[in-house]
Design goal:
Blueprint lengths: L1 H5 L1 H10 L8 H10 L3 H14 L8 H11 L4 H7 L5 H10 L3 H10 L3 H12 L2 H11 L2 H11 L3 H10 L6 H5 L11 H42 L26 E3 L5 E3 L13 H22 L1
Antiparallel strand pairs: 1-2
Helix pairs in contact: 2-4, 4-5, 5-7, 6-8, 7-8, 8-9, 9-10, 9-11, 10-11, 12-14
């Protein structure tokens, strides 16, 4: 403890560097710092430990949420983003107690409650740009509806929406919900920008549609030519099932030609198979599929 008071940063670095050596193991150091009521020193030690080796003090991560909220608020959100082993509900309660709204937004979204997170951004942070950014990240149409509903009574927020959401939602959805006689700053300029942004989206979609139609037409032409092209069969062509020549035998025999180019005697094709699939291609495809499946299984082991 005397070392801490003389130079806490140097002492923390020393304790962390020798964290695997008795008597400086993490559990022992935490116990000593906790028992002497030097909570701020405990925070410095656990913070330094987390920066050096995030897994070394994993059992204290929940405690660190309270410590960061009390002694080092700016590091709380990066800490929450980095940790996956913290009970989210308990972390949310700590952030609520300390009025850490930005951290609460992150936790609520991570807990699967984006609407509550969005409401917090609007009502507590009062940041329309952040609310729009949040809705964009979530990519949920219902969230855009909630954003409009929560913002429509605030003229400043309406201006922010008009200036920024033209490329993400139908502008009429927003305009129709603006109450009559609402005084909105720079309404004219905002409406012009909104419609321009929306027109850009319309033009992009039309351009993409034309490209897709052109590609589809080109591919259909290519397929038509391939299906209509001749396949040469000579006396050396063999049946892929029995290995005998398809033509040139004394007996008259039917044969089946698939689009893949493989040829079979009519008698060698499984007549019960209504799909009349090429046996060689079918076996090859099954083998490829089995190989990919085995590769994925080995990769996940």
């Amino acid at each position: 403890m005397t070392l801490m008071k003389l130079g806490s940063e140097e002492t923390v670095n020393l304790l962390i560097a020798h964290r695997t050596e008795p008597p400086l193991q993490v559990e022992r150091v935490v116990k000593v710092l906790d028992s002497t009521h030097t909570v701020e020193y405990l925070h410095k030690y656990l913070d330094g430990l987390f920066q050096k080796d995030p897994k070394a003090g994993g059992q204290y991560h929940q405690r660190q949420v309270e410590l960061y909220a009390t002694y080092d608020k700016e590091k709380l959100l990066p800490f929450l983003r980095s940790c996956t082993d913290i009970p989210l509900q308990k972390a949310l309660q700590v952030c609520e107690k300390h009025n850490r709204y930005e951290e609460m937004v992150f936790l609520l979204a991570r807990m699967g409650n984006p609407k509550a997170a969005l409401e917090l951004v609007i009502k507590k942070l009062e940041d329309v740009d952040k609310a729009i950014e949040f809705a964009m990240e979530e990519g949920d149409d219902d969230l855009w509806d909630a954003l409009i509903h929560l913002s429509i009574s605030n003229p400043k927020f309406v201006t922010g929406l008009l200036n920024n959401v033209g490329t993400h939602i139908d502008p009429t959805k927003l305009i129709q919900q603006i109450p009559e006689h609402t005084e909105i700053p720079n309404l004219g300029a905002s409406l012009v920008k909104l419609l321009q942004d929306f027109q850009v989206q319309v033009n992009l979609r039309e351009g993409c549609r034309k490209i897709l139609v052109k590609d589809s037409h080109s591919l259909m032409e290519k397929l038509y030519k391939l299906q209509g092209s001749a396949v040469y069969i000579d006396g050396d062509t063999i049946c892929k099932a029995c290995g005998n020549e398809v033509i040139g035998t004394a007996e008259k025999a039917d044969f089946v030609l698939f689009f893949c180019g493989h040829v079979y005697h009519g008698r060698c094709v499984n007549k019960k198979n209504q799909r009349m699939t090429c046996r060689m291609c079918y076996v090859h495809t099954r083998a490829e599929h089995r190989g990919r499946k085995e590769h994925l299984l080995q990769k996940n082991l």
